[in-house]
């Protein structure tokens, strides 16, 4: 063995590193009491960016789209050296471009869509019977699950699979050149058609699902801190209410290469279902999450009342939201008062039969069991969707 170390030191070091990694993985699994059949979340190895620029997800847009105008037909008479009366040779105009939307996995937000969208116009026809160039169709990528509704709320398109396309506005046809109007009576017409205008329509665009799991809580419950702890998302964190005004989405990666998206929903308050504190807009974000995690500030007096308020607001907005797979996060367990309130909160959660997880998002304590449960929610929910 000593001779092997002298001759091949790098081989022995690599063998030692592999053995150490296996022991470390086994110890981590045993400490967390996690079944080896469930994929483990991957650690965030790369240092998080300290940039203060945040990009919240945009899941709703009101847009006006217009197809391209068709090119005008050309008025031209052929004049050759040996035939000055060669007849009409004005070409047709090119067709205007369509405005189309295409579903793709590469997009997660509607932030890149402007409120006014117009396709390219077709080119005019020219002499010698040359057709004007047709305009290129404008193709805009949107996330899978994007719905297009008319202004009266009717669903016109639901792009629920990769590559699905919706033509929002068609371009106008090109006008005919004067050669089209030649007759036996009038062999040199000096008229042509204008290109047709493209369609002009208005839509509301919504993302049906913005994340697999949504974090719900009152303001300053620690939702943004928890999202920063489990992903590379960088939502703003500050010690005042309503720090988060738009949902932020983070991605949790697992060792089987699956990815689960978690959304930080802006904080709800009592009366949110009556649109108090922009409640309707925030509840709409919750409606687009497949699973829910209630985040409770355990350091406050009677923390179970926070859970009562959250569940009451969801029930008033849409009773079906209470039937979605859920769990409770008892956050801020690093504070002294949280230990005193923990048992009372646990008893309340046991009465409503929800999984319970004491955590400290600030100190990254108790995070791994939650990510294990998040993966279970993801697997069960996606399995139900595929069965449907």
UniProtKB/TrEMBL annotation:
User: Which GO BP annotation is one of this protein's?
Assistant: ribosome biogenesis
Q: Name one GO molecular function term.
A: GTPase activity
**Membership in a protein family:** Belongs to the TRAFAC class OBG-HflX-like GTPase superfamily. OBG GTPase family.
* This protein's name: EOG090X0ACU
Please state every residue range assigned to the domain named Obg.
55-210
**So where does this one cross the membrane?**
none
Tell me yes or no: is GTP-binding among this UniProt entry's keywords: yes
- OBG-type G domain: from which residue to which, for each copy? 211-379
PROSITE patterns attached here? G_OBG, OBG
Q: Which organism is it from?
A: Daphnia galeata
- For this UniProt record, give its keywords in alphabetical order, as a comma-separated list: GTP-binding, Nucleotide-binding, Ribosome biogenesis
One GO cellular component this record assigns the protein to is: mitochondrion
């Amino acid at each position: 063995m000593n001779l092997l170390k002298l001759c091949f030191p790098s081989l022995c070091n690599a063998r030692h590193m592999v053995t150490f990694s296996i022991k470390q993985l086994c110890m981590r699994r045993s400490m967390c009491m996690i079944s080896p059949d469930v994929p483990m979340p991957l650690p965030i190895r790369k240092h998080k960016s300290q940039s203060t620029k945040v990009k919240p997800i945009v899941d709703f847009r009101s847009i006006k789209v217009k197809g391209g105008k068709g090119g005008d037909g050309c008025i031209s008479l052929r004049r050759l050296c040996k035939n000055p009366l060669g007849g009409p040779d004005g070409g047709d105009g090119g067709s205007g471009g369509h405005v189309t939307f295409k579903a793709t996995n590469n997009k997660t937000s509607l932030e890149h869509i402007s409120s006014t969208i117009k396709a390219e116009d077709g080119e005019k026809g020219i002499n010698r019977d040359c057709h004007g160039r047709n305009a290129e169709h404008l193709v805009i990528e949107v996330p899978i699950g994007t719905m297009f509704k008319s202004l009266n709320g009717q669903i016109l398109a639901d792009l629920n699979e990769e590559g699905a396309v919706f033509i929002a506005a068609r371009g106008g046809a090109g006008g005919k050149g004067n050669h089209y109007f030649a007759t036996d009576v009038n062999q040199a017409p000096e008229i042509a058609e204008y290109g047709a205008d493209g369609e002009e329509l208005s839509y509301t665009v919504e993302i049906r699902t913005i994340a697999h799991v949504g974090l719900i809580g009152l303001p300053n419950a620690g939702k943004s801190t928890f999202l920063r702890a489990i992903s590379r998302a960088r939502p703003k964190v500050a010690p005042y209410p309503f720090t988060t005004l738009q949902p932020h989405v983070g991605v949790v990666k697992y060792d089987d290469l699956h990815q689960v998206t978690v959304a930080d929903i802006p904080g709800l308050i009592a009366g949110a279902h009556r649109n108090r504190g922009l409640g309707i807009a925030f509840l709409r974000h919750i409606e687009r999450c497949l699973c829910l995690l209630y985040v409770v500030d355990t350091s406050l007096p009677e923390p179970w009342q926070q859970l009562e308020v959250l569940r009451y607001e969801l029930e008033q907005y849409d009773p079906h939201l209470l039937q979605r797979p859920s769990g409770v996060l008892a956050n801020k367990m690093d504070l002294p008062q949280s230990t005193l309130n923990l048992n009372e909160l646990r008893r309340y959660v046991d009465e409503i039969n929800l999984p319970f997880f004491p955590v400290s998002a600030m100190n990254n304590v108790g995070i791994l069991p939650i990510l294990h449960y998040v993966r279970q929610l993801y697997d069960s929910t996606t399995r139900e969707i595929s069965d449907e």
